[in-house]
Specification:
241 residues; alpha/beta; 3 domains; four-stranded mixed beta sheet; three-stranded mixed beta sheet; 7 helices; 9 strands; elongated
Amino acid sequence: MAFSGKTKLLAKIKSAFRCCICHDPFVEVHHIVPQAYGGDDTLDNAAPLCSSCHDLYGGNPEKQKIIRQMRDYWWQTMEERQRNLTNSTDLDEFTRIAGEENFKGPLHSQGIAIYHLVLQDDSFEVSVNHLHQQVLYAQQTFPGRKRLLYLDIDGHRSSDGGFDHDMFELQRHFLLGFLCPFLSELYMPLISVKTRKLQRNDNPEKLEVCTELNTEALNKAIDEGYSGIWVSDKDKWLEIE
């Protein structure tokens, strides 16, 4: 048997006719537990999925639990949205539903491991650019796959045995402050981090590092098509719009 027309319609309405994983429109209702494995035709076993998410995750038995969790979360979110629509006179705030690009890919079982060794003679700027390009290459080559960055540092020690200024800034401010959102896991000498949020997939293609933020640096970055500037002395990322 298959889902009844009533069950399919109810599942779609509860999802606002959106995929419960990536939130794209144009969905079909699929069995979370396939019929071949004893899945029934009730609403509890129904998941509205777009064709892309169904192809990626629908046939993987290891993903059944998380698909159900994401389905329940999305249905709850849409219920709250409907209550807001009912109680609000400003519909624009609630009628927009944005697709979630960051969901496309992270449910793959295998992630992408990225390893980088900072050599004794590598400067902060060289290290930043190498790390940025490695993460960007992984993002573009394996879009959406979980990215795990492993960092080693050769030398770069201060007189008291800790890291010098450049390598402390690289780990504490650049990697944690800027690059971490584009990763799922980060392993470096100072600390290891597993991000709680889904990794972002909009890492800028060009990154400029400067030590002083001024008009000349901004104009140079804009003219050369950079998406933003990392201000080294201020440990700050400035996005160029």
